[in-house]
Amino acid sequence: MAETLTTQAGQTVLLATFFVREALCALDAAGVQEVIRLGPVTPVNYAPEEVLGIVNLRGKIVTIVDLGLRLGFSKAVAGPDSRIFIIEDGDEFIGLLVDRVDEVVEVERGSWQPPPPNVNWGQAHFFQGVCRNRGRVITLLDAGQILKLKDEE
Protein backbone atom coordinates (compact mmCIF):
# COMPACT_ATOMS: atom_id res chain seq x y z
CA MET A 1 0.00 0.00 0.00
CA ALA A 2 2.92 2.36 0.62
CA GLU A 3 3.70 2.30 -3.09
CA THR A 4 0.14 3.31 -3.95
CA LEU A 5 0.38 6.33 -1.70
CA THR A 6 3.38 7.73 -3.54
CA THR A 7 2.59 6.70 -7.11
CA GLN A 8 -0.89 8.16 -7.40
CA ALA A 9 -0.05 11.86 -7.25
CA GLY A 10 -3.01 14.12 -7.79
CA GLN A 11 -5.37 11.76 -6.00
CA THR A 12 -6.46 12.35 -2.46
CA VAL A 13 -7.14 9.98 0.40
CA LEU A 14 -9.11 10.47 3.60
CA LEU A 15 -7.18 9.71 6.75
CA ALA A 16 -8.69 9.10 10.17
CA THR A 17 -6.26 10.75 12.58
CA PHE A 18 -5.86 10.03 16.26
CA PHE A 19 -3.36 10.26 19.07
CA VAL A 20 -1.43 7.36 20.54
CA ARG A 21 0.10 8.92 23.62
CA GLU A 22 1.35 12.20 22.09
CA ALA A 23 2.01 10.86 18.58
CA LEU A 24 -0.37 11.97 15.82
CA CYS A 25 -1.12 8.87 13.75
CA ALA A 26 -3.52 7.96 10.97
CA LEU A 27 -5.18 5.07 9.21
CA ASP A 28 -6.72 5.14 5.77
CA ALA A 29 -10.34 5.99 6.62
CA ALA A 30 -11.55 3.52 3.96
CA GLY A 31 -10.27 0.67 6.15
CA VAL A 32 -11.96 1.85 9.34
CA GLN A 33 -15.32 0.15 9.87
CA GLU A 34 -16.34 2.36 12.80
CA VAL A 35 -15.10 4.10 15.92
CA ILE A 36 -16.62 3.18 19.28
CA ARG A 37 -16.24 4.10 22.93
CA LEU A 38 -14.31 1.77 25.18
CA GLY A 39 -16.70 -0.35 27.22
CA PRO A 40 -16.31 -3.52 29.27
CA VAL A 41 -13.71 -5.87 27.80
CA THR A 42 -13.55 -9.59 28.55
CA PRO A 43 -9.93 -10.61 29.23
CA VAL A 44 -8.44 -13.54 27.29
CA ASN A 45 -6.09 -15.82 29.21
CA TYR A 46 -2.63 -16.36 27.70
CA ALA A 47 -3.14 -13.67 25.05
CA PRO A 48 -0.19 -11.43 24.12
CA GLU A 49 0.27 -8.43 26.41
CA GLU A 50 -1.10 -5.94 23.86
CA VAL A 51 -4.41 -7.84 23.59
CA LEU A 52 -6.72 -6.29 26.14
CA GLY A 53 -9.46 -8.84 25.52
CA ILE A 54 -12.61 -9.22 23.45
CA VAL A 55 -15.97 -7.49 23.14
CA ASN A 56 -19.22 -8.50 21.49
CA LEU A 57 -20.16 -5.78 19.00
CA ARG A 58 -23.64 -6.46 17.65
CA GLY A 59 -23.02 -10.19 17.46
CA LYS A 60 -19.42 -9.93 16.20
CA ILE A 61 -16.54 -10.87 18.47
CA VAL A 62 -13.89 -8.14 18.28
CA THR A 63 -10.36 -8.53 19.66
CA ILE A 64 -9.21 -5.30 21.33
CA VAL A 65 -5.52 -4.38 20.97
CA ASP A 66 -3.70 -1.61 22.85
CA LEU A 67 -2.25 0.17 19.79
CA GLY A 68 0.24 2.14 21.86
CA LEU A 69 1.64 -0.99 23.46
CA ARG A 70 1.83 -2.62 20.01
CA LEU A 71 3.82 0.39 18.77
CA GLY A 72 6.24 0.18 21.69
CA PHE A 73 4.77 2.86 23.96
CA SER A 74 3.74 2.32 27.57
CA LYS A 75 0.51 0.52 28.45
CA ALA A 76 -2.64 2.59 27.81
CA VAL A 77 -4.49 4.26 30.63
CA ALA A 78 -8.05 4.38 29.33
CA GLY A 79 -9.81 7.69 29.83
CA PRO A 80 -12.99 9.43 28.72
CA ASP A 81 -11.44 10.32 25.33
CA SER A 82 -10.23 6.78 24.58
CA ARG A 83 -11.77 5.20 21.50
CA ILE A 84 -11.55 1.94 19.59
CA PHE A 85 -11.04 1.94 15.82
CA ILE A 86 -12.69 -1.17 14.39
CA ILE A 87 -10.89 -2.55 11.35
CA GLU A 88 -11.43 -5.77 9.42
CA ASP A 89 -8.65 -8.29 9.01
CA GLY A 90 -9.87 -10.94 6.59
CA ASP A 91 -12.99 -12.29 8.24
CA GLU A 92 -12.03 -11.07 11.73
CA PHE A 93 -12.67 -7.70 13.36
CA ILE A 94 -9.93 -6.05 15.41
CA GLY A 95 -10.33 -3.02 17.66
CA LEU A 96 -7.37 -0.68 18.07
CA LEU A 97 -7.46 1.29 21.32
CA VAL A 98 -6.26 4.88 20.85
CA ASP A 99 -5.95 7.70 23.37
CA ARG A 100 -8.16 10.16 21.51
CA VAL A 101 -9.61 10.79 18.08
CA ASP A 102 -8.49 13.87 16.19
CA GLU A 103 -10.21 14.37 12.81
CA VAL A 104 -10.57 13.08 9.28
CA VAL A 105 -8.23 14.89 6.90
CA GLU A 106 -7.90 14.81 3.15
CA VAL A 107 -4.34 14.65 1.84
CA GLU A 108 -2.83 14.19 -1.58
CA ARG A 109 -1.34 10.75 -2.03
CA GLY A 110 1.83 12.19 -3.54
CA SER A 111 2.57 14.24 -0.43
CA TRP A 112 3.63 11.22 1.63
CA GLN A 113 7.28 10.59 2.28
CA PRO A 114 8.89 7.43 3.62
CA PRO A 115 9.70 7.43 7.32
CA PRO A 116 13.02 9.17 8.06
CA PRO A 117 16.04 6.86 7.65
CA ASN A 118 16.98 7.34 11.30
CA VAL A 119 13.76 5.53 12.28
CA ASN A 120 15.33 2.12 12.57
CA TRP A 121 13.89 0.81 15.80
CA GLY A 122 11.80 -2.35 15.89
CA GLN A 123 8.39 -0.73 15.37
CA ALA A 124 9.38 1.22 12.24
CA HIS A 125 7.84 -1.45 10.02
CA PHE A 126 4.41 -0.36 11.34
CA PHE A 127 4.77 2.99 9.52
CA GLN A 128 3.95 3.56 5.85
CA GLY A 129 5.05 7.16 5.73
CA VAL A 130 4.73 10.67 7.07
CA CYS A 131 3.26 13.91 5.77
CA ARG A 132 2.57 17.44 6.89
CA ASN A 133 -0.98 18.70 7.14
CA ARG A 134 -1.74 22.20 8.43
CA GLY A 135 1.65 22.42 10.10
CA ARG A 136 1.41 19.04 11.82
CA VAL A 137 3.33 15.85 11.04
CA ILE A 138 1.09 12.81 10.64
CA THR A 139 2.40 9.25 10.69
CA LEU A 140 0.43 6.83 8.52
CA LEU A 141 0.24 3.39 10.07
CA ASP A 142 0.21 0.16 8.09
CA ALA A 143 -2.82 -1.72 9.46
CA GLY A 144 -1.65 -4.99 7.91
CA GLN A 145 1.67 -4.84 9.74
CA ILE A 146 0.02 -3.84 13.02
CA LEU A 147 -2.29 -6.84 12.85
CA LYS A 148 0.42 -9.40 12.17
CA LEU A 149 1.21 -11.69 15.04
CA LYS A 150 4.66 -11.26 16.57
CA ASP A 151 5.82 -14.64 15.26
CA GLU A 152 4.91 -13.54 11.71
CA GLU A 153 7.08 -10.40 11.87
In short:
The protein has 3 helices and 10 strands. The chain is mostly beta strands. Strand 6 and strand 7 form a beta hairpin.
Can you walk through the features of this model?
It is built from three helices and ten strands. It has 153 residues and is mainly β. It has a single domain, classed as Beta Barrel (OB fold (Dihydrolipoamide Acetyltransferase, E2P)). β9 and β10 form a beta hairpin. It starts with a helix and ends in a 6-residue tail after the last helix.
Q: Descriptors for this entry?
A:
about 10% helix, about 150 residues, 5-stranded mixed sheet, mainly beta, disordered N terminus, OB fold (Dihydrolipoamide Acetyltransferase, E2P), 3 helices, about 45% strand
What is the topology?
Layout: H1 2-7, E1 12-20, E2 23-28, E3 32-37, E4 51-57, E5 60-66, H2 67-70, E6 83-89, E7 92-98, E8 100-108, E9 127-133, E10 136-141, H3 143-147
Parallel strand pairs: 2-10, 5-7
Antiparallel strand pairs: 1-2, 1-8, 3-6, 4-5, 6-7, 9-10
